[in-house]
Amino acid sequence: MVRGVLSSDHLVEAPASAVWSAYSGLELPRLITELLSDVLGVAEVVQGDGGVGTVIRVTSVPGSAGPGDFIDVYTKVDDEARVKEKETVEGGFRALGFSLYRMRFEVMEKGESAAVIRSTVEYEVEDEEKAKLVSMKPLELIAEAVGKFVVEKRNM
C-alpha cells in the first residue's frame, strides 16, 4: 500500500475571511465551473447545502489528461478554522484503484490583508505506479483562479 500526501501554498493579497468566503459553502464548485470549466471541467452540486455530506459531480473536459469524471463528498467543513475536506467516492482516482483520495483546502491568515491557501491531497493506492498520477496541478489552478477572483472582486 502506497500512502502519500502532497501540499502546496498559494499567497493571496486579500483578507483570509474574503478568501474563505470563496471556498466555503457552495461557492467553490460554482467558481470552478465559472473560472476553470475549459481546463478542469464542470462541478455540479448533486445534493447538499455546502456543508458536510454535500455531493459534487465533476465532469472533466473531454480528452483531458486527468482521472476522468468523479463524485466527491464534503467530509469536513470548519468555518472557524477555515478548513474544507472532500473525498472522491466514485469515479476519478477511485476508478483507478485508489482506496482514498482526499482533498483539503485551508485558508490561513497572513496579516490583515493577505492569506495563504494551502491545498493538500492525501491518497492510498496499492499500485506504486498509479501513485505517480497524483498531481497538485488542479488544486494549484483552483487556488490561483480563486485568489485572482477574490482580489479582483475586492478591487472593483
TrEMBL record:
GO biological process: abscisic acid-activated signaling pathway
A GO cellular-component term linked to this record: nucleus
InterPro entries linked: Plant_def-hormone_signal, START-like_dom_sf
Source superkingdom: Eukaryota
Transmembrane segments: none
Molecular function, one GO term: signaling receptor activity
Protein name (database record): Bet v I/Major latex protein domain-containing protein
